[in-house]
Structures are given as C-alpha cells and as structure tokens.
Amino acid sequence: MQRLLTLLLQKFHSEWQEDIQKERGTLPRFKTMTWDMVSQEGELMEPLAVINLKLQSNAHTQTKETNVKFQLAKNTLNTMMQSMYCIRDQLSNTGETRHEPLHQQTDMV
After folding, report:
1. What domain of life does the UniProt record list for this protein's source (predicted)?
2. Which among 5, 62, 81, 87 is placed 20 to 30 Å from 27, CA to CA?
3. CA pair distance 36, 48, nearest whole angstrom
4. Buried b / exposed e across 9-48, counting CB within 10 Å, b at 16+?
C-alpha cells in the first residue's frame, strides 16, 4: 500500500505543481513612472504631485499594461517616502536572518 501511494505521488507530482502555478495569481511589475506638479484651485492651496505608474502583468502568458494615476500632497508624499525607505532597508537586509514580518502597514490620509 505504501509503495502504491509513493508511486501515485511521484506520478502526479508534476501535474499538481502545474495546477498550483496556474491557480496562483501574479502581481504586476513596475515598468515606468512619470510625474508632474499641478496647482490646486485657490491661492492658499499647496501644489500636488501627480504620479503616473505603468505596471505590467504577465497573466496567463498575455502581457498586459495598466496605468495607475494618483496625486500626493506634501504630507502624504512624506509618509510614502518613509515607507519606501523602510522597504528599501528590508530588501537590503533580506539575506540576514529575520524573525519579524517583512511588511508594514502605513496609514495614509
């Protein structure tokens, strides 16, 4: 019985691996970024940075590009930059043994 189970597992292992890969979603990859400064309505309003990201995904062997556009004021840009520095530092330290999770949530308003 044990031998039969071992043979079945060996026989179907690669097929099951392929099924898992098909079902697993893929995250889009960063391709390009452009930005521009715009003024808000009114004299006392601070300028905004308008960010345009181009993302590329290879879902099911078809390449698809998506544009994401958003605006940031100075305070939200500072929060985003702090988070990006944390990500950079964590990526730099991925070779070291870590016991804490490699993600953080930053609240942006």
Report:
1. Eukaryota
2. 81
3. 8
4. eeeeeeeeeeeeeeeeeeebeeeeeeeeeeeeeeeeeeeb
Name the one residue in this structure whose structure tokens are 């940075």: 49
99, two tokens: 């016991």
Could you state, in order of their start, the residue ranges of all structural domains in the chain?
A: 2-92
Give pLDDT tens digits for 20-43. Answer: 777 666 778 899 999 999 988 776
Q: How far apart are CA 36 and CA 38, in angstroms?
A: 7
How far does the chain reach from its first CA to its final CA, in angstroms?
Answer: 60
Q: Kind and range of the H or E element at 36?
A: strand 29-38
Q: How far apart are CA 95 and CA 52, in angstroms?
A: 32
